[in-house]
Design brief:
Blueprint: H1 3-20, E1 33-37, E2 40-43, H2 44-60, H3 68-92, H4 98-111, H5 117-127, H6 131-154, H7 161-169, H8 171-178, E3 179-189, H9 194-210, H10 214-221, E4 227-237, H11 243-249, E5 261-263, E6 266-277, E7 283-294, H12 302-317, H13 322-329, H14 333-336, E8 341-345, H15 352-360, E9 370-372, E10 375-388, H16 390-420, E11 424-426
Antiparallel strand pairs: 1-2, 1-11, 3-4, 3-6, 5-6, 7-8, 7-10, 9-10
Length: about 425
Amino acid sequence: MTTKNLKKIFKATALACALSMSMPLFAAPTDHVVAIVGKSVILKSDLEQGVAEITHQLSAQKKEVPPQSILETQVLNQLITQNAQLELVKRYGIQADEKTLNEAVLKVANQSGANSLEAFQQKLDKIAPGTYESLRSRIAQDIAMQRLRQQQVMSRIKISDQDVDNFLKSPEGQAIVGGQVHIIHVRVSGDVDPTQLNQTAEQVKAALSQSNDYKAIEKRFNKDGITITASDTGYRPLSEIPAELSTRVSLIQPGQTTDLIRVKDGVHVLKLIDRKSNDQKALVPQFNTRHILIKTSEVVTPENAKQIIDNLYERINAGQDFATLAATYSNDPGTARNGGSLGWVTPGTMVPEFDKTMQSIAVGKLSQPFQTQFGWHILQVTDKRDQDMTKEYQRNMARQVLGERQFETELDSWLRELRVNTYVEIKDPNLKIN
């Protein structure tokens, strides 16, 4: 088994182990330090837990389990990389917010058959007290490390305007950002040996390459333990198709089928019937907006700021000129000299409180004073329009696709650099690392 495959399994085991309900987290009674990573340590129980989880996962998938020494080496390497990331998580103060954490834990709970966090906690703690909190802590760490990787890796990805132009001119770019596709979609799933599932999927692919009669294919290959779900989706924008499927479709020509696509819910294969350009425009509402901002400071308390903005609100309602008052009193220097004008504003570009107020008032009306993280505001929408943002939308989508392509490469590079720059000392002479 390759190192890469073990890495994938290692990433999944934290949740899979809890879902299996058969292997509670534990601490060895005779624990000792096997490695020092920065300011943290890896215990023998951590290593044994990781090995046990991978062994459990491989056995559940009916895959060959590598020798103990290989498993220990791979798990130790992964634990070192994980601890190095957690060191940075602590240094930068990155945390999983409660809402995101609860949603992530609830998703795991639902997959295990529990419909609430309370029921899930009771279910896990019946296995061993504290199992729920241990799992919750591990998920929180996973979220924090994911955010760390996003921050660190995205800053390394550089996509030029020329890169975007070249991508949009390519067949793949044209298909992704501007096209609709007519496809036949077949999913092969079932509670059978993976080898048997793949064999059936290969047969389905061969049949689909010769025929568009998906109903006949569905009927022909449905058998005990294997379910074939096939459909003709008609014309659909590629943006509405899951990314792991749409990317494959963009690479084939009409009449061709994709390679087998193995995802969590089974094996998928798609056949492209036709492709056509998408004439639909991306019309986005925009608001011509002006505002006055009063900030708090060492000399302006929050109460003073509220009094000032209330006074300005009354003066504008009494007939005084908005632009003149903005130029005189607004603490936003970028807009004050233009009478408070922000120009045309697209929803989503401002902080939520500002965005919500801007979209909720009628053109020409003055908003009530409201507070954001920047201070107290009043705003006025002087005009509204639907702007054709098709080109901007396409370029943003192209940047996203190109960024996703670079992410894994840059992530591997960043992790290697992190590992090199992290102090690691192996305390157990029987253990080796790559």
